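Researcher: Last one for today. Full complex below.
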Amino acid sequence: MTTDLTHGPMERAFRASRAAGRKLLVPYITGGYPGWQDALRAAVAAGADAIEIGIPFSDPVMDGPVIQQASQHALESGATPVSILHEARGLDVQVPLAVMLYYNTVHHAGHERFAAQLRDAGIVAAIVPDLPLEEAGPWCAAADAAGVETVMLAAPTAPDSRLPLIAARARGFLYSVGLLGVTGERSSLAGTATALAARLKAVTDVPVLVGVGVSNAEQAAEAVKVADGVVQGASVVRRLIEHGPDAVGEYVASVRAAIDA
Amino acid sequence: MSLMAEPSASGRFGEFGGRFVPETLVPACMELEAAFTEAWADPTFRAELDHVLHTYAGRPSVLTQCHNLGQQLGIRLLLKREDLNHTGSHKINNVLGQALLAKRMGKRRLVAETGAGQHGVASATAAALLGMECKVYMGAVDVERQALNVFRMKLLGSEVEAVHSGSRTLKDAVNEAMRDWVATVETSHYCLGSVMGPHPYPWMVREFHRVLGDEAREQCIGLTGDVPDVAVACVGGGSNAIGLFSGLVDHRTRLVGVEPAGGAAVARAQPGVVHGMRSYLMQDEYGQVLEAHSISAGLDYPGVGPEHSHLASIGRAEYPNVTDAEVVEAFQLLSRSEGIIPALEPAHALAWIVRAAPDLRGQTVLMNLSGRGDKDVAQMMDVLKL
Ligand SMILES: Cc1ncc(COP(=O)(O)O)c(C=O)c1O
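Model: Here's the assembly. Have a good evening.
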């Protein structure tokens, strides 16, 4: 087996898993929410391939009620980007960790400084949902230099001509937004979810994961018929809020089983 | 070239502006930019907009000289009477422009945020006029303190949704309107109410309000033979101020935008990114956006439009702030001395004029009276207990 040196640790791991026929599962957990570290460990033990740690922001425009509620609770409990990164450093889990955060958190700290903080905390990737391609240059340069993979998002509204441009800038994986709307559970998987994943798979070999609106094990199984994996947010965080960390582990195990079947 | 020319290709005014939106909205912003650019250069569209502004909104608005108050303050005080527009504020200029544009783009539904309710009422009005659907998001705090406008919007056939997240004011109404737009972008136009948000909004909304600044300049020259020495307007997001400034920026006039003390984004001079734009923004040490606090719902916003940040950073305009107490005084002063009840928002501009008057003796001061006070009367009954 040859060693893959052109990609960062998360993309390396994802490409290797894909090559081995494994579908990728990335749960999202709101950092700073009470019990978040236990929930994260439970998710890893239940078969998550990576974890997306949400860094709460005062104005989360891409998030629906569940993640808004968790973010607000975490902020009111005193969580800050610094406290969450500090806690992340002590997690000692064997899967890649990414953060999901809004751009002002990065902008305020400064690009180079924030990229270094991520690296020092053992975070290998960042997802910044309000930083589209045209604005991403300065952050991506700093992240690249620090060895942090910047995950790009592609949305169903993009014309075909835009997708290869986004894919070319994507590191780690390509986040295929499942529907028109914000995070939150839906009763069925939107047709746009598999449609966009297929359009992306046609133009890139970067791993394509569907996120936003993948709400349960069945929907995850449906999405990975086309995509390389899924990101699940609101369905995970709701269980953390309602039933605590153990329920997150049970849920992730059920999704794992469904996408492995 | 004008100091307030078109923004750069990336939507920048100097270092401010840009397009920091979820990827889902990027194509819609590009489409809007192209549609506005095309429409604004099309004489047919301009004529159509001018026609509704004149025959429906009541433009041009008059310029009133305040002899009583002017004498008292030792200045020549002129008011640009945007309070006399249909729906009671300057907001209608922008809304009619955007609604006609949305219709031209084939959109059937408007989404809007509102603080004081004036932009919401204007949006509901335009939707009724043009046969469009309209949904307005309004912070729960503002729903309460501007109840009259909530009723007006409903009467006009719009849906009003109270927003209970965050500070439950304008900032959170913008968040919720953006979330709606992310989900409905294919059929809806986001009718943003100020010179803020992602490119092309700050530029487009400025162009739709330019009419008030151009009128004011010509009216002032007609009356006094010269442009004003000072032009003053309140600043929430900054649309009524930018309209006034755009007509005077290339003249010798001193430009003053007045913020509330509890929402003084420019005074803190800290750049941040929220609601699609890079601009001065009130935030904590980690970049969490702070809640503004103002007696006026329309100015209760922790940021400011990017072109104002630019004008402040190059020193072309200044942005002092006034306290709620000064505003309450100014609100009563204009009512009693001139028989004009102002909205609480433009009462901020007057509050600064009153404070600065000793240094302005003999000067011509043109203030944008951006809206009328009817909406604030119930709230002020509690405050003043007359
Ligand atoms: C009368 C009036 N003036 C001013 C404003 C503030 O907006 P802007 O700063 O965009 O002019 C409002 C907003 O609701 C308003 O109703």
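The CA atoms of residues 25 and 48 of chain A lie 5 Å apart. The longest strand of chain A covers residues 24-30.
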